[in-house]
Amino acid sequence: MANNTKIILGIDPGTIIMGYGLIAVTGQQLVIIEMGVLKMNPKKDHYERLQAIHNRMISLIGQHKPVSCAIEAPFFGKNVQSMLKLGRAQGVAIASAMQAGLSVSEYSPKKVKQSITGNGNANKEQVWQMLQRILKFSEQPEYLDATDALAVAVCHHFQETSPLATASKSKGWDKFLQQHPERVCKP
């Protein structure tokens, strides 16, 4: 990869299936590096599955050297126990990325779908089909958790490069205060 290439790791957390996707960004060109899933045995101890998530995260980060990690926020369901387990899986993925020095951003499922398809209520197949157009690939993964993770990475890129994100970074309070020190009241 070129020196001005930025790699983004996207994660769709799960306690049985965790999707992951990596993209390389050079300017406005997006290229898929890898997508896949970590499929865990549901009969294994929950803590062993959390260890497997940590190990896969460390392996992906070591192999591909991403600069940031984008993760999908859990969808709030009615089963409290499932939500607790999903939150733990997400926490392990976030902690693994942060331990490796990556910046981490979280996006709601609706935000990811909106960013990729223009429709926050799109289904997994619609997201996958739009990603095929954006990233120019033809394969259909066995598990759509992989394309969901890829969508999170692409969403992160779109959010970082949107005119609104750029404007808010360049026109924040810190920038304003630097440009207008005379407007600061001192005690």
TrEMBL record:
Cofactor comment text: Binds 2 Mg(2+) ion per subunit.
InterPro entries referenced in this protein's UniProt entry, alphabetically: RNaseH-like_sf, RNaseH_sf, X-over_junc_endoDNase_Mg_BS, X-over_junc_endoDNase_RuvC
Origin: domain of life: Bacteria
Cofactors: Mg(2+)
Keyword NADP attached: no
E.C. number(s) listed in UniProt: 3.1.21.10
Enzyme class at the top of the EC tree: hydrolase
GO MF annotation, one: crossover junction DNA endonuclease activity
NCBIfam families: ruvC
Protein name: Crossover junction endodeoxyribonuclease RuvC
Organism: Chitinophaga barathri
Lineage of the organism: Bacteria, Pseudomonadati, Bacteroidota, Chitinophagia, Chitinophagales
